[in-house]
Amino acid sequence: MNTQAVLDFILTLDGLKAVERRTVPSGMSRRENSAEHSWHGAMCALLLADECAFAVDVKHAALLFLMHDVPEIGCGDTFIYAPEREDAAQREAAALELLLATLPGHTVKNLRELWQEFTANQTPEARYANALDRLMPLLHNLSHDGLGWREHGVRLEQILERTVQLGEVLPKIWAILRPRIENHFSGA
Amino acid sequence: MNTQAVLDFILTLDGLKAVERRTVPSGMSRRENSAEHSWHGAMCALLLADECAFAVDVKHAALLFLMHDVPEIGCGDTFIYAPEREDAAQREAAALELLLATLPGHTVKNLRELWQEFTANQTPEARYANALDRLMPLLHNLSHDGLGWREHGVRLEQILERTVQLGEVLPKIWAILRPRIENHFSGA
User: Do B25 and A14 make contact, defined as CB atoms within 8 angstroms?
Assistant: First the structure.
């Protein structure tokens, strides 16, 4: 029955609260999970539209962020600097279909399209949401003196490679953060 | 400087990840925090629009849910069955103003209006979002055989008093859940 399937799926979503990321929220000593990260990113979508280099539908960008990590319930988080990152989207697409399998067709379509739009990273809202997804670990790492970078041996060049889009989408913020990140790695 | 104030506020929002609720997510053994709850509720807004007794703007309802607990960063969560619940809105309004104090004026206005709309509980989206806020602990408690109700000595009448709006807004879901809740309390 459709209503029961949706209620079951709501409890399935609890699984994202158990998916651990590599970053530690500021002022905390435990790692972040992907559910609270998804809330945080959607709030950032509300907060940073003025800083975006192009016009965006803030509400739609927030929805993309809410949905972007849901497949991790099935396949876990892939660290952005891990080699497995290359085929993460394929594994996530498969995991998503399994998670959505019992839901009504129009709900599946709606959720799948949100995830696909974020992952394709082509629309203004998807480019904005992806830039936010890059921004947040930078803020967390800077707030903990590079804790996550040190723990995982991340190098400055890796960060700069992965933040090209952040610089294009949120240029003013990148202009503030880039020197701080460079200072961290130069030991200044 | 405005951009720096927004970046600081993004880290302030991390505080919601440290606010503990009384409920335990399904399949987990720790309590939920208000940040992951806010993500979950916004997802429910996407999922349950078909079940709502009236038409709602799903994206707007999701935003209301994203913002509704932010004042707890300043004043903590108030258990729905606690006597302090009576003046929670006043404490939260004051806490919110302190949190927002350094942000640009239009951002303050936007965030404050979202919180006020949720709390006033008058618009269709606010009524829907408030009903979801009641629904979620019921689902969690049922998934843990009433764990939160047992721990806090909650009685059936208290639940029924607090779920009148849930029954009005999501009648089909309430028709499914009410007998399960009554069965729990009758020991069936």
Answer: yes
